[in-house]
Amino acid sequence: MTPNSVSVERSTGDRVEARRDGGHVVYYACKYTPVELLAGFGARSELAEADVSSFDEADRLAHPNLCGYGKGLIERLLRDDVREVVLITCCDVIKRAYDVLREQGDFDFIYLLDLPHKRGEAERRLFRARLADLADRYAEYSGRSFDVGAALAAFEPPVRSTGDHVTLLGAHATRALLDNVGEGVGYPVENGTCTERHLLVTPPPELARAASEGDCSACGDDAGAGVGRAGGTLDTFLDWYAGALLNQMPCMRMDDVSQRAKLHGGKGQRGVIYHTMKFCDYYGFEYALATKEEDLPMVKIETDGTSQSLGQLRTRLEAFGETLHGADVAREAAGSREGLGRGYVMGVDSGSTSTDAAIMDERGNLVATVILPTGAKATESARRAKAEVLEKAGLREEDMALKVSTGYGRDNIPDMDTAITEITCHAKGAHFLMPEARTIIDIGGQDSKVIHLDDRGNVLNFVMNDKCAAGTGRFMEMMARTLEMSLEDFCRTGLEWKHEVKISSMCTVFAESEVVSLVAEDTPTPDIIHGLCESVARKTATLARRVNGEAPYLMTGGVANNAGVVQALTNVLGAPVATHEDSQLCGAIGAALLGLESLQQG
Amino acid sequence: MAEQSLGGRILDGYGDLIAQHIDDAPEGVRQALSVAFNVERAKVTILPELKVHPFSRDAASIALRSVTDALNDFGSSVVTSIFLPSEMFLSMGVHPVTAEALSGFVTAAHAETGFVGEAEGMGVPETYCSFHKVLMGLATSGVLPAPRLLASCSVPCDANNLSFKALSHVWGTPHVYVDVPYSTADDAAAVSYVADQLRSLAHAAERAYGTDLDEEELRRHVANSQETLASLRRSLPLRRGHFMRSDMGNEMQLALATHLWLGTDDTLRMARHMERDLADAQDFDGVSIVWGHIPPFFLRSIAEPTSQSRDAQIIATDMLYDQVGPDEPRYDADHPFEAMAERLLDDCFNGPATRRADRLCSLARQTGADGAVVFVHWGCKETAGAAQLMRRQLESQGFPTLVLDGDGCDRGNCMEGQMSTRFSAFLEMLRARREAA
Question: Which Pfam families match (chain B) (predicted)?
């Protein structure tokens, strides 16, 4: 017995009830969980999905500043249907989740298995002893003996995908996330996240022979019968199993992670999606290193570990899919529209604040544009934008060879030929407005993004803010409201600053608190606004560095109208940041251009 | 917002200057920081703070030296994690320096924002521990040159794994990681496992610094460590009902001195001074609290109510008493590696959260505290996940507890107004409770 591992066992009556409800089901959360060992005791191991509807209990029992998976685990494992739990000391959050579960839960069996951070011989011996302790505890609790045949039958052969696919790496992914990635990117998904088992070896023949001997014992030999470890068979199994489990493809918490390089660039791998969560730090670090591999198409996504946060990922995943597929969706649509119309193309950008439309002729000249507020009904605004831009151009809908939509509402605009994400459209539109620009900084009402371009306006890399409002137009609006000013006055007043004021926090709520304190100290309003502009600039510059952004910079989106932010960005980036009077039309122009290109190529 | 510095404000306005030049003049920034810390070190030596106990002045001097020595001669430094035993390095004349020490002083110079931004720009998650973010920023900006060795251990948190691995990549410096089982020193196999890793670390240090480890010198340092911790154990009950005359900066300095410089003659002297000073200390009838984690010394509104105050004081922290258990050590200085392994395994920050909760309860009981604060430092999942459990355990033993969210070194993650209201209201509640009793 090792003092680090703790189990709780309940009475025989409870066990009988648990079995009647479906036998022994062990819930787990880490790929180092010895599911085959537990299978040897007749237990089925179930990965705890933790796709919960709220974190209220976890916030109350632990703390909000844990990763979504850890909080979801607390919520999920405290439900009545969970009777048996085996967790691993895999990271800080899971260790603390175990503490809370042990204190609050009413389990038949709960066990924390200590996993070494290294994989040498000393660690293998240590880990083997801990597995043996778990086996003893589980045998004692369940009243079952170890059946090596059942353990071996639970092994899944280590076969990697070789056909075209994308690999999802990083923090645990729910089934819904895996489905979303597959649908968004348009390739089958290989799951390489932290909870997905990745053994690199198969059981040796000696163990299979031991299994056969075990079968014989069922006919009369008592070697495998009775309660307990079944002596030599379990020992032989553990001698091999401890090393096999410890030496699987390492997760990021292991000391030596050099083997993880093999997760990038395998046969058929078209790209990598990195999944991170707030307060899970491991995979942010790996992503930062991996971005230095320029040949590997990669995108980072962030969720809170539940399927509720998946909606915001659609644009990112589809944009990534577009870069992987190369020949874009518009080309396919163009093929189906060949011969129709008079060579005009229309782009419509349905954004959160405004709905913009542009019409281009076959030579790439802008014929007409309109900008309308989106208002409460995005579909209706898009219908009006289309009608107005056609009227302005003196054209009819039948004159359009192709109509391409983009923006948040792109899939809900009636009678469009295809939809392309605003990332791809924005890049193309920005290149049209300022061909020399290599980095586009777009700060809109809902989100901010930085796009790194090549000299033809193709996306090299992009990054978007997560769902928090830090550094977005919404952040500025809320700060203006705190100062009781209109956004227009706010922008103008900020230019009159005299003294540096530092707003440390990027969090909207924290920053508001800082602003209130500054107001209480009679700090001049222009200085506070300047501090806020600097704060947004710092946040944006951080995003720019993540995509290896380079000059010349072009700033677009509503916040580009705030001269204070533009100036602050120029200072922080150490290079001029240009704006363009038509920058708001970037998305619509880009959509039209992509339509035109596809017609010309198609 | 105005702040109080670590043992007195170092240099106002440095932060902005530093932030502006992190990218274009990292060497100049390093020198600017070094000058600031050396000025403060001279001040502590020549014009010591007279309001505090002499042992607090000792701690200030030791803590400042840990950073100034490192910045003045980084080639002779080792970047370590705060819970990793230092005696091997100290025996070889190598200066240990940690994220907490560097970040604490950078924050005191109002310079943390630039380094946090630098680290986040390199992809370090925003929700990562700020102490480590500042360290990463110092490294990636080039302000800190590469040391010859990186050494860390798995206690207490994942950051010691991640940051050091990443720093090894950034600096091209070897990194030795000590894996500490989730166990206690009752487990002989665990002691032997950790001791063997510490031996390997000592060999790595010999190779990195081209110096042989003098085992006799190592035994002397380990004997010093054990005597220092014994002295701390004796001084703990002396805190009861006595005036600490300290502030949050002192508490951080004490934590640095008793970890990084544990084993030195200076730290042993400081511990003995503490015993003497506390035995002679004035009586105190204000509110006394036990503090969990490193306090945010730089937030004036949080630090002021307990700064050399007659009304409220921090009477003990788990960052000072984490290595001071109820039992005598099993291994003496003749088995230096086993003795260090034992200390690491038995640290209350290793193993289940109940162990740390037990230590906080024990500190509160022995010092007669009125209550406790569990400070949830931003990005510290070890503390965040255990915070409510520790609160429940403390309160079940009669110690009202405040779980206070903030950041131990980054102003950007602190809602000072709200923190101040909560902390002050908690102190008022304890005062009322005391008066009613």
Answer: HGD-D
- The fraction of chain A above a pLDDT of 70, given in percent, is 86
Domains present along chain A, CATH in parentheses: 12-155+201-246 (3.40.50.11890), 165-198+251-325 (3.40.50.11900), 329-434+586-601 (3.30.420.40), 441-579 (3.30.420.40)
pLDDT band at A437 (very low <50, low <70, confident <90, very high): very high
Q: What is the CA B320 to chain-centroid distance, rounded?
A: 8
Q: Do B181 and A114 touch (CB under 8 A)?
A: yes
Q: What are B120's two structure tokens? A: 């986040």
Please give the average per-residue pLDDT across A226-234, as a whole number.
61
CA distances from B396 to A240, B315, B351 (A): 46, 20, 21
Partner A, chain B 156-175, Cβ-Cβ below 8 Å: 157-159, 161-162, 165-166, 169
| Cα R_g (chain A), whole angstroms | 29
Domains of chain B, residue spans: 14-436
CB spacing of A62 vs B387 below 8 angstroms: yes
In whole angstroms, what is the distance from residue B24 CA to residue B36 CA? Answer: 20
Helices B112-121 and B130-140 cross at an angle (nearest 10°) of 80
Report CB contact under 8 Å: A65, B384. yes
pLDDT at residue number A297: 87
- How many other C-beta atoms are found inside a 10 Å radius of the C-beta of residue A221? 12
**Record: contact B127-A65, CB cut-off 8 A:** yes
Which helix (DSSP H) or strand (DSSP E) does residue B257 occupy? helix B248-257
Asked if B395 reaches chain A (Cβ–Cβ under 8 Å), the answer is: no
pLDDT in tens, A541-593: 878 887 788 899 999 887 888 888 888 889 888 899 999 888 888 889 999 99
pLDDT at A225 over 80: no
- Mean pLDDT throughout B83-90? 97
Angle (deg, nearest 10), helices B112-121 and B99-108: 130
The Cα–Cα gap between B274 and B231 comes to 8
Query: Is B127 in Cβ contact with A281 (below 8 Å)?
Result: yes
Chain A interface test: which of B182, B346, B388, B402 (most A C-beta within 10 Å)? B182
What confidence tens digit (pLDDT) does each residue in A244-276 have?
Answer: 999 999 999 999 999 998 888 888 899 999 999
User: Which alpha helices (DSSP H) does A447-577 contain, by range?
Assistant: 473-482, 487-494, 508-520, 525-546, 563-573
Mean pLDDT of A37-54: 92
Residue B163 Cα, gap to closest chain A Cα (Å): 9
How many beta-carbon contacts under 8 Å exist across A and B? 190
The confidence score (pLDDT) of residue B110 equals 84
Least confident of A88-97, A502-511, A517-526: A502-511
ipTM of the complex: 0.94
B118–chain A nearest CA distance, Å: 8
| Terminal CA-CA length for chain B | 37
Torsion of the alpha carbons at A22, A23, A29 and A32, rounded to the nearest 10: -150
Q: Which residue of A has its CA nearest to B119?
A: A542
Token code pair at residue A9: 């066992």
Indicate the pairing of strand A84-88 with strand A44-47.
Answer: unpaired
Candidate from A292-296, A473-477, B128-132 with smallest mean pLDDT: A292-296
**Which of A465, A461, A471, A464 is CA-nearest to residue A548?**
A461
